[in-house]
Specification:
By secondary structure, this protein is mainly α. It has five helices and three strands. A hairpin with a 4-residue loop joins strand 1 (2-5) and strand 2.
């Protein structure tokens, strides 16, 4: 999935098979913000930026804000989501960094993309990929900054 955020000067491609929860809404904020909606594509990009960390956290949050504007997320919802990210996003940022540096997978193998995974949760699939590293798909996305 391609993305471009001209104001923040960040563009790129989220790789096929990237695992996202569509909106990493902290438990304390789930009564305020739903986990999906018009902002969902921006949330996928945001999850990818939080995982790969090619930019700092503020820039990743600003990309999400800019992409929500482009998707015409209502200002009140957009501002609420952005403020929650700024207030509560650090824990997700740090956990993603820890998991990525530990070599945890975040991209489903190509052959798993064409059959239903109903009944499986990400933790179970992740554990299987860790135990069978030859199956893990390597990142295929990209992020460009500037220009």
């Amino acid at each position: 999935m391609g993305f471009s955020a001209p104001r923040t000067r960040v563009k790129g491609e989220v790789p096929r098979g990237f695992v996202t929860d569509f909106a990493s809404v902290p438990p304390r904020a789930q009564s305020i913000v739903q986990k999906d909606g018009r902002f969902t594509p921006a949330a996928v990009v945001h999850d990818y930026l939080y995982w790969e960390q090619p930019v700092d956290r503020l820039t990743a949050d600003n990309v999400m804000f800019e992409l929500m504007e482009a998707r015409r997320v209502p200002p009140r919802d957009r501002d609420t989501i952005y403020n929650i990210l700024r207030l509560l996003g650090r824990q997700a940022w740090e956990q993603n960094k820890k998991d990525r540096l530990a070599g945890k997978p975040r991209i489903l193998p190509e052959k798993w993309m064409n059959f239903p995974l109903d009944g499986y949760d990400w933790e179970e699939l992740e554990r299987y990929l860790i135990e069978n590293p030859n199956l893990a798909q390597r990142p295929g996305g990209s992020v460009e900054i500037g220009g």
